[in-house]
């Protein structure tokens, strides 16, 4: 009779001294290998040995595995080199259709391999197996810090622990940080600009700049495709050759911005202010606003020589005193558009809708089809 305290090594040392042997292993009365002192309870009968297999003294000295129908409920698993002691009922009862249940429901039904200590060999990760075993013990998902839940999930799927899979999927979903959809501020973007080499391509596709103050910044050649720039202040910004394809510029202020060679195909700039903008590139590179939504925009006094506004929507827009010399306006919706004072020499308005448009003091000639009507 001994008092159990300290560690398992302390217990083995006490047993060695009392029995005059070099004790290396401790078993309970049913042959279960004890690898943690916390598994020992008051009045337990324990057996120690020097490494040989457990032999029940009540079985005439025969090894337990030779006894027909006498397999113990206690067993030891060697999972990836780490030992776990548990009961057969723990592995079988909670998830009777799992792989572990089928492996240990009937003795040697799967021909399970054992190591020199009699532990059943399982070639899986021990750190991911431990939470699974604890779940089978008490039905609670408890994962220590530093353990990847995805790894535990893969092991649960491998062993077919269906009820645990659902718990893990929920836990993984809840552990993911919430997506941050808040707009990027001017300070954050300027820091981003300063940290990027001048020759590197800046890709800002799909980013949210809604309401940001980006005025007077050098934004040349930046890819803003499909970005949210609604209600932004881009006044006096340099957007030369920037890609604003399908970007949302609704309600933004771009007064006096440099838009030479800008690409704004199918962009949405409804209600934006583009007064005094420069779209004219001396090198001949033309700004492309084909298919853009420019309803109600104010582009008064802008330089737009050669601009491509084909099939764009400029309904109710203000283009007063704009330079549209050589512009492509074929198929453009110019309904109720104010084009007074515009230079439309050599502009192409074939197929455009100019119903209710104002052309007073307009410079000529125009390239129009017979279907074009205005006043």
TrEMBL record:
Pathway: Protein modification; protein ubiquitination. Residues 75-145 form the BTB domain. The keyword Transferase does not apply. InterPro entries: 5peptide_repeat, BTB/POZ_dom, KHA_dom, Pentapeptide-BTB/POZ_domain, SKP1/BTB/POZ_sf, T1-type_BTB. Residues 1-66 form the KHA domain. Substrate-specific adapter of a BCR (BTB-CUL3-RBX1) E3 ubiquitin-protein ligase complex, which mediates the ubiquitination of target proteins, leading to their degradation by the proteasome. The keyword Hydrolase does not apply. Keywords: Phosphoprotein, Repeat, Ubl conjugation pathway. This is BTB/POZ domain-containing protein KCTD9. GO terms for biological process: protein homooligomerization. SUPFAM superfamilies: Pentapeptide repeat-like (SSF141571), POZ domain (SSF54695). It comes from the Eukaryota.
């Amino acid at each position: 009779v001994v008092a159990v305290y300290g560690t398992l090594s302390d217990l083995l040392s006490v047993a060695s001294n009392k029995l005059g042997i070099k004790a290396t292993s401790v078993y309970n009365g049913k042959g279960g290998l004890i690898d943690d002192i916390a598994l020992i309870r008051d009045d337990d009968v324990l057996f120690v040995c020097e490494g040989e297999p457990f032999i029940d003294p009540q079985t005439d000295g025969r090894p337990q595995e030779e006894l027909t129908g006498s397999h113990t409920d206690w067993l030891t698993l060697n999972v990836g080199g780490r030992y776990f002691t548990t009961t057969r009922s723990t592995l079988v009862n909670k998830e009777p259709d799992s792989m572990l249940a089928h492996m240990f429901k009937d003795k040697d039904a799967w021909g399970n391999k054992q190591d020199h200590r009699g532990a059943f060999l399982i070639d899986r990760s021990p750190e991911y197996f431990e939470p699974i075993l604890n779940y089978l013990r008490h039905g609670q998902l408890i994962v220590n810090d530093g353990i990847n839940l995805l790894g535990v999930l893969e092991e649960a799927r491998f062993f077919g622990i269906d009820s645990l899979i659902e718990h893990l999927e929920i836990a993984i979903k809840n552990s993911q940080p919430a997506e941050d959809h808040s707009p990027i501020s001017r300070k954050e973007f300027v820091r981003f600009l300063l940290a990027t080499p001048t020759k590197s391509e800046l890709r800002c596709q799909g980013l949210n700049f809604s309401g940001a103050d980006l005025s007077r910044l050098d934004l040349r050649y930046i890819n803003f495709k499909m970005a949210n720039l609604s209600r932004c202040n881009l006044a006096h910004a340099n957007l030369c050759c920037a890609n604003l394809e399908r970007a949302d510029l609704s309600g933004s202020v771009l007064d006096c911005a440099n838009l030479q060679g800008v690409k704004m195909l199918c962009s949405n700039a409804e209600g934006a202010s583009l007064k005094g903008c420069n779209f004219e590139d001396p090198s001949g590179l033309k700004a492309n606003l084909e298919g853009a939504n420019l309803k109600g925009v104010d582009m008064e006094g802008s330089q737009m020589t050669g601009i491509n506004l084909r099939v764009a929507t400029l309904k109710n827009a203000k283009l007063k005193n704009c330079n549209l010399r050589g512009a492509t306006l074929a198929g453009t919706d110019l309904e109720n558009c104010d084009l007074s004072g515009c230079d439309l020499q050599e502009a192409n308005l074939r197929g455009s809708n100019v119903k209710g448009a104002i052309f007073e003091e307009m410079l000529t000639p125009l390239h129009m089809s017979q279907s074009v009507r205005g006043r």
